[in-house]
């Protein structure tokens, strides 16, 4: 299998108890089937087994979750911000989300793409300060899993993503121009893939997009309130943010034939950095608010397609301001 990952991936290390914003606070943790099966095998007299059984419940999407403790803390997060479940039964038996966070892993037939998410502040610092967002590949002995992706579409998207990267990295132009070119390119590709309403809903204002129904960290609300509309800085961090969203989401269009929204996500990420705070903490908050809340992400995806304020035309106006 071919493994693709950013070159900095190997340098990521969780700082656990020293983390300024634990990933074990603010959101629900899904318990995956494999972990649930393991918990059933635990000795009922074990304190950790009793604690697990006490907190298991269902969310509105019918996922099995751990009921959060006060202040939206994971019920297994102790006073030192360490995981009691990890300590009691080993990290390999914590839920899949906990074992993998902040990593994402996407398989496309014989290719696996992996990366880390801005939702972790340590990963966010790393990516924000990169001199250049680059990738490396390696081959492993692992056999590809069965898949039903459209091969032709996949290869079209792989080729298109390379072009999208080149547009974002074209340092002969200011970043605002590069992002505008990216939108034009994605719009053209979208017209060959599927219908796309691009802004038939005028009912929502640009800044309302960022008022998520599920607020994970109240700091985010303050960031949105204290926004400052200004031109986009020509800094490397903005290129890195755009590259992150393209890498993580562009190929997902193989499942929904929606490539334009993926390009818009890159543009919106840069606008978040511009309006709400030009630092790695702000983009970390945005990532945590949207990418890790099913509610917020479903709403955001819908708005990307339908909200007039997120149409190509309106985003391009913001880019040249
Ligand atoms: S947010 Fe990142 S650094 Fe913090 S505890 Fe989670 S994985 Fe570790």
Can you describe this structure?
With 321 residues, the protein is an alpha+beta fold. The protein is built from 14 helices and seven strands. The protein is globular. Bound molecules: iron/sulfur cluster. Keywords: Methyltransferase, Transferase.
Fold topology:
Layout: E1 2-6, E2 29-30, H1 33-40, H2 47-55, E3 56-58, E4 64-66, H3 84-89, H4 96-100, E5 103-108, E6 111-116, H5 121-128, E7 135-139, H6 151-168, H7 175-193, H8 218-225, H9 236-249, H10 253-256, H11 260-275, H12 280-291, H13 294-306, H14 312-319
Parallel strand pairs: 1-6
Antiparallel strand pairs: 1-7, 2-4, 3-4, 5-6
Shape: globular
Ligand names: iron/sulfur cluster
Biggest sheet strand order reads: 5-6-1-7
Structural class: alpha+beta
Gyration radius, rounded = 20 Å
Largest sheet: 4 strands, mixed
User: How far apart are the termini?
Assistant: 45 Å
| H/E series | EEHHEEHHEEHEHHHHHHHHH
Secondary structure tally: strands: 7
Structurally, the number of domains stands at 2
Keywords:
14 helices, four-stranded mixed sheet, 321 residues, globular, alpha+beta, three-stranded antiparallel sheet, 46% helix
Brief sketch in words of this structure:
This is Lysine-N-methylase. With 321 residues, the protein is of the alpha+beta class.
